[in-house]
Amino acid sequence: MAVTWTRAWWRWTGGPTTRPVERVVRVDGRSRADEPDDERQAFGRWVRKRPRVDGGRRRGDGCGRRSLSPTWVLAVGGPQPAGRGGRVGGVGRDASRLAGLQRRLQGIAGGLAVYDEAPDNVSSSTYSSTPSLPGCRVAPGRRADAGLPLARVTSNRIDVEALAAMDGVGRFREVLPMLMDPVAFAEAFVSGDAAGGCRVPSRGMERHRATLRSCGVASDARSRPAFAMKAFTTPKKDGRTARLVLDARPLNDAMRRPPSMDLPRLRDFIAEVERHRFAMQCDGVSYFYQFPVDASISRYFGIGMKGCDMLLNVLCMGWSWAPCIAQRASNVLVRDLGLAWVDNFLVLGGTLDEAERNVAVFRKRAQAARVEVRAEGDDALWQVRSRFVCVGVEFDLAAETQRHRLDPAWAERWVGGSGMTAVLSGRATARQFAEVFGGAVWATDILAVPRCHFAALLSFAGRLGGRMVDAAAPVWDEVVDVPPSARRELGALRKIVRENPWVVGGVPEDTGSVLWTDASSRAWAALLEAEGRFVDGRQGVFAGPDADAHINLKEMLAFAEGVVRLCWAPGAQRCRIDNAAVVGAVAKGSSSSYAANRVLSRSLRVAERRRIVLCPGWVPSGEQQADPHTRGASLPRFPAPLSASR
User: Fold this and answer.
1) How far apart are the two ends of the chain, measured CA to CA in Å?
2) Amino acid 489: pLDDT
3) What are the Cα distances from residue 42, in Å, to 7, 37, 38, 79, 466?
4) CA dihedral of 558, 564, 565, 569, whole degrees rounded to 10
5) Is residue 459 within 8 Å of 594, Cβ to Cβ?
6) In what order do the strands lie in the sheet with 344-349?
7) Residue 157 confidence class, pLDDT cut points 50, 70, 90
8) What is the pLDDT averaged over residues 511-519?
9) pTM given for the model
10) Is the peptide bond before 639 cis (omega within 30 degrees of 0)?
11) DSSP secondary structure string, 380-441?
């Protein structure tokens, strides 16, 4: 007897769902390539059967839909004649071998469902039409419905005009027309033509139609939307509910890029929190959905659905401008009171009385703008505390020295996740690697671990990211081979995250000095400024391979020489560089250039041993104090006044 796995096409007609299902089955969880030749012969061949598109009702099929979806079905029969492809041979009659086959098939997790009798909730038309043995009915594998219900969505709407009136800086007023003014919205299109015409259907979103209507998030479209895009849901942290996201890439590609979000850098966020002793944390309830959108603009936020498209009446989660609008609105609420990270609000205070006064001011602003907030987790709303978790960071401000570490719950999920297991095994999908690598970047920032220790991991991530960017249609489910060196570095970081040590002294004292570094095509120079004068300096000429290097690498070499030769005092060392590439590389701890990354690693290791925190900053070339000494000017005798470099 031979067993043949045959590709067939089916439509679901019974049971709890009427949607098509797709199931790919592997024998004992292995792929075809992993099977020995003898076992592959014993279990027949994998044969693809062409889909039958009849364009109408099939006999016994009550749904009458034209949409067809593939699934794997099992055909059991005798030996196949040579040269007959996927055609199933005669029916076998060995009942004992059939019983053993049934037991083996029942052990295939997530595969085909094998029934001795037809289940009550499955129509007989869902069974294979290929010859099968009596008493063995093989139904298409039923996929467990992974669709989660939408999380509770508020029907509250923010008074954006009142919020704009509180904006003393004017940053929120700059982007408010993108919500309320259709003319300004149309002017944001790159081509100047806002006619749209894109329509991408969504799958399985009809079950949420009533929920979206009841809370006022969306309404049925009376005419064709300018952009009808695909909507999908993503699980929330609780694992029981999901949030609605719109794949707004067609709209984003047609519009110009949004301005800066005004989101603080993570290290600056942590440093500002640790300057205080008390804090109150809350977050916006369905924050994006609290921002109303003018009816003439909502036609650009269409959801492609079967039967009737829908229009979002609120800020679209997935639109490139949405984070900018939300962050700038949050900054208005916490101005001079604390910090905001998109929909997370943190009101700070050096003393308990100051924190409570700031909380009272924040409450008045939130009530005036009709912003609905809630406490994080089990905390009581408006409660001031010294130990809390915010944006994935656990803060302890009550300690003698303020400290922070990763959120223990997040660290446990990242360390023990299935993506981490797959990456460390060496074969993971590109999506799994991207998720794990994003967590690695987040962890190194919070735990203050220099990224120079993870050069191989960074290099592989850069190559993979470049390949995905260059691809016309990136395949994130493609399996990639992770190099052993990158896996070793990731394993070392995993140990650090599992320990999750407290980081103390996140706000080091300023050394009071400034390092100026610069490079020209032939020479480099570095000056150390302290107490309003130059106290030390070095200069040199590029030789050997460095003489022909790119200017960015020469600037990095000049910076490294300045750090190694001039910086000795522990603390925050300000650095002034007129090369944006070097500033960015030093700030994030890595460079996309292998040669520059090696030079940067050297300077970062030296700074780590000397307990120096490098704080790079960009200056125009006309203000670079070290520039004249890269073009032939000799160094002055130290100490020297600041005017000596000009």
Assistant:
1) 92
2) 93
3) 19, 9, 6, 10, 44
4) 130
5) yes
6) 338-341, 344-349, 278-284, 373-375
7) very high
8) 90
9) 0.67
10) yes
11) PTT--BSEEEETTEEEE-SSSS-EEEE-HHHHHHHHHSHHHHHHHHTEEEHHHHHHHHHHHH
Flag whether pLDDT at 606 surpasses 60: yes
The token pair that represents 371 in the structure block = 């912003």
Q: Check residue 508 and give its pLDDT.
A: 55
248: helix, strand or coil: coil
DSSP characters over 298-341: HTTSEEB-SSS-EEE-B--BTBTTHHHHHHHHHHHHTTTTEEEE
For the beta carbon of residue 38, count every other beta carbon within 10 angstroms.
8
- In whole angstroms, what is the distance from residue 458 CA to residue 465 CA? 10
Residue recorded with tokens 């003489």: 547
Q: Which one is predicted more confidently, 511 or 587?
A: 587
Whether pLDDT at 63 is above 80 = no
Strand partners, 319: 317
Which tokens hold the place of 71? 């699934």
**Average pLDDT of the residues of the chain:** 77
pLDDT value at 419 more than 50: yes
Amino acid 418 reads S
Contacts of 183 (CB under 8 A, 6+ apart): none
